[in-house]
Each structure stands twice: as structure tokens, then as C-alpha cells.
């Protein structure tokens, strides 16, 4: 029972910190990212993508969704990217963002060799340093870097949004509101993220109904492709007691995330279990194990599955 409680605490913490505040995901999920998926089924036809930057800690975004960080060798293996054509962005501290595209075919293997140019742009460097600190949970230090970036470039909406994420983590909701509203006024390509963070803010203020409205606005702005907003909406709907809609949003989020985060399956399974939908819960727990079979909490999940099978 103690192991199970620990797993539940892990899932809650990752969802709150990782998806609602945009910080780094703990090692259990990072491990799943770096190993190939050799068992079970995936979400439709997929292929593998290997990103090579030569820089450790490069953050890789596919279709505007964060998919992982390169290893010490400057590489990231993504074994099951859903087939399709996607924009790719790579961010490394000290370098200008690299942007490109990838076409993934079912069963295919693509290698993206990324060549980035060093940058001396001070606002960008402060913003990047802030992100690196936020990923380590050093929110107050990150805020100082974001403030330096904004002092040099007040229109840098990315820094406004990132600072708001830190402030929400620190429960300084008044200052977070100011940053989000400023980012929303700036608009542009960051509008969807700003709208999503506003939803995060409302939910963490205890304004669940209002958060649902804001998440739905973000999803409309993104024409449906808004992983973080779908997951935030799923969490809010679950808090509201709307199980069916919450499950629907989780499944959309998992599809858009391309199974990058195993913990999403765990959280989905918990909701299904709570609703006595044991067969679906078992399937979700099994998918969690499929993506992270050697994780610290794998044995706890196996025990949960056995118990649910007996109850079923």
C-alpha cells in the first residue's frame, strides 16, 4: 500500500509541476524517452526520430510540443513519433533556436543533424538561462534572468510567460496575472501558450470553472493542437467530477504528446479506476508499464493491475 501511495504522489506532482508549470519532467519519464519501445502497441502508425545536436541539454520540440532533452552526448532518441509531417524546434543555451521540419513514415527511421549558431543576443541568453534554471526547479533565480531579459527587450513574450509559470509555482498569483496579461496583449505566436498558462493560473487559484473556459480558448486558438491545454482541461474536468470529458481530454493529450510522458497513462488509469472502469484502467496502467517497464514505480503498478483483475 505504501508503494501505491508513493506512485500516486509521483503522478500528481509531475502533472502539477510538469504540465501546468512547464518544468522538467523527473527521471522516470526521462528514462522512458531515451529507450526504444519494443513491446506493446503504439498510438497508430509511427516511426523513429533521432535528433543529434552535439550539445547536451538541448530541448527538442516537435509540433510545438516538448519531446525531451538531449543526453550528455548531444543526442535524443524518439522511438515512436506518430507518422506525419511536423515542424521541429531545438533550443540550446548559448545558441540561436534551430527550426526545421521532419517527415515521419510508418516504420521509418529519421536522423536530424542540427547545426546551431552561437548567439550573443543578451535578452535571448538571459531568457535561455532562465529556462535552464526553471528546469532545475530554481524558480527565484530563473525569475531574475527573465527580468533581465525583459529589461532589455520588453516585448519578449516568451519571458513573460516563463516568469508567470515560475510565479504560479511560488503561488504569487498577483504577479503571475500581470505577466500573463502582458503576454496576451503582445499576442503573436505565443498566444496559445499564454492562454494555457492563464488556465493554469485560474485552476491553481481554485477557480476551476474559469480555468476550463481559458483552456478551451487556448484549444480553439491552436485549432485543437494544444497538448498542455488538453491535459490542463482534463485535470480541471476531473476536479469538477466530469469523468467522461476528463478521460476524453486525457486521450487527446496523450495522442498529441505521442506517448512522450508515461505518467499521463498512470493519471488516466487513476481516473478510470476511481470510476470503476477497471478494464479501461488496466489497459491504461499496462500502457504506463509498456513505456516505462523498469521504472521505480513499475512494481507498484503491476500490483494495482493484479488487484483490479481480481476485482473485475
Describe this entry's structure for a reader.
This protein has 312 residues and is α+β, with helices and mostly antiparallel strands. It folds into two domains: 43-119, Sandwich (Immunoglobulin-like), CATH 2.60.40; 122-311, Serine Threonine Protein Phosphatase 5, Tetratricopeptide repeat. It is built from 13 helices and seven strands. The chain has helices spanning 2-19, 27-34, 122-135, 139-152, 157-169, 173-186, 191-204, 208-221, 227-240, 243-257, 263-274, 278-291, 298-311; strands at 46-52, 59-62, 65-69, 75-82, 84-91, 98-104, 109-113. The strands form two sheets. It has a four-stranded antiparallel sheet, with no helix packed on it. Helix 3 (122-135) runs antiparallel to helix 4. The radius of gyration is 19 Å and the shape is globular.
Labels describing this entry:
alpha+beta; globular; 2 domains; Serine Threonine Protein Phosphatase 5, Tetratricopeptide repeat; four-stranded antiparallel beta sheet; three-stranded mixed beta sheet; 312 residues; disordered N terminus; Immunoglobulin-like
Amino acid at each position: 500500500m505504501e508503494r501505491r501511495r508513493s506512485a500516486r504522489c509521483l503522478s500528481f506532482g509531475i502533472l502539477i509541476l510538469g504540465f501546468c508549470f512547464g518544468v522538467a519532467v523527473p527521471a522516470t519519464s526521462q528514462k522512458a524517452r531515451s529507450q526504444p519501445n519494443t513491446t506493446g502497441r503504439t498510438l497508430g502508425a509511427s516511426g523513429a526520430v533521432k535528433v543529434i545536436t552535439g550539445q547536451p541539454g538541448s530541448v527538442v520540440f516537435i509540433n510545438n510540443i516538448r519531446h525531451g532533452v538531449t543526453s550528455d552526448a548531444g543526442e535524443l532518441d524518439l522511438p515512436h513519433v506518430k507518422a506525419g509531417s511536423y515542424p521541429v524546434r531545438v533550443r540550446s543555451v548559448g545558441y540561436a533556436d534551430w527550426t526545421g521540419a521532419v517527415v515521419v513514415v510508418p516504420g521509418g527511421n529519421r536522423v536530424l543533424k542540427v547545426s546551431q549558431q552561437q548567439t550573443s543576443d543578451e535578452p535571448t541568453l538571459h531568457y535561455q538561462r532562465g529556462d535552464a534554471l526553471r528546469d532545475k526547479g530554481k524558480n527565484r533565480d530563473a525569475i531574475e534572468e527573465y527580468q533581465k531579459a525583459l529589461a532589455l527587450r520588453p516585448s519578449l513574450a516568451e519571458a513573460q510567460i516563463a516568469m508567470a509559470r515560475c510565479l504560479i509555482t511560488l503561488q504569487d498569483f498577483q504577479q503571475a496575472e500581470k505577466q500573463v496579461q502582458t503576454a496576451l496583449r503582445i499576442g503573436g505566436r505565443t498566444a496559445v501558450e499564454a492562454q494555457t498558462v492563464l488556465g493554469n493560473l485560474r485552476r491553481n487559484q481554485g477557480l476551476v470553472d474559469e480555468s476550463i473556459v481559458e483552456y478551451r480558448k487556448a484549444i480553439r486558438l491552436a485549432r485543437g493542437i494544444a497538448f498542455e491545454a488538453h491535459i490542463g482541461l482534463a485535470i480541471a474536468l476531473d476536479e469538477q467530477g466530469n469523468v467522461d470529458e476528463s478521460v476524453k481530454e486525457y486521450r487527446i493529450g496523450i495522442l498529441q504528446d505521442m506517448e512522450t510522458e508515461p505518467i499521463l497513462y498512470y493519471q488516466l488509469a487513476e481516473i478510470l479506476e476511481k470510476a470503476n472502469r477497471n478494464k479501461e484502467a488496466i489497459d491504461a496502467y499496462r500502457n504506463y508499464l509498456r513505456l516505462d517497464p523498469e521504472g521505480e514505480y513499475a512494481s507498484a503498478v503491476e500490483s494495482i493491475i493484479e488487484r483490479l483483475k481480481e476485482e473485475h
